[in-house]
Amino acid sequence: MPEEFSAAIAAVRAAKLRDELVVEEIPAPAKLAPHALALAANVHPNAHGSDSELGTGRFIVLYDPSEPSSWGGPFRIVCFAQAPLETEIGLDPFLTDVAWSWLVDALNARGASYTAASGTATRILSTGFGELADQGDGAQIELRASWSPLESTMAAHVEGWAELLCMLAGLPPTTEGVTLLSAHRTARD
Length: 189
Hints:
4 helices
């Protein structure tokens, strides 16, 4: 294993994450890069190893010493975060903009240096029918993002992703100056 990637793994494992998260290493995708580390996280999970009703996410560090031109360096981070919302909040046309800004703010607040950020923020609205009619209406926010860190110390990057996941799940931010849309979660109507 390359020394630079070993140092990155050590930094990820040493990151200080919020107590509300249960994080575990999971198998990393094998075909995206020669070396990778993947984490799964759940906000207050009901059972270890299952997706949380409050929020769930994935964080992957990719390392390719050939430095793909689209990455701008040897590392690329790919992340996913998802959380249920109140239906009224899911209707907010600015929700996706807010979710993306939370990621950027969380990374910047921790001093994470990066380039080539890209991603999508998706709000999902659903209504149950037939046998699922009892579920009623529901909403979710989903963020998929990637960026190229400018340093091999990854703690700030994984800490920023973890903060984003907790904020999407409705937990108060640990960063000053960031406000929540709503900390209240309800079951589907």
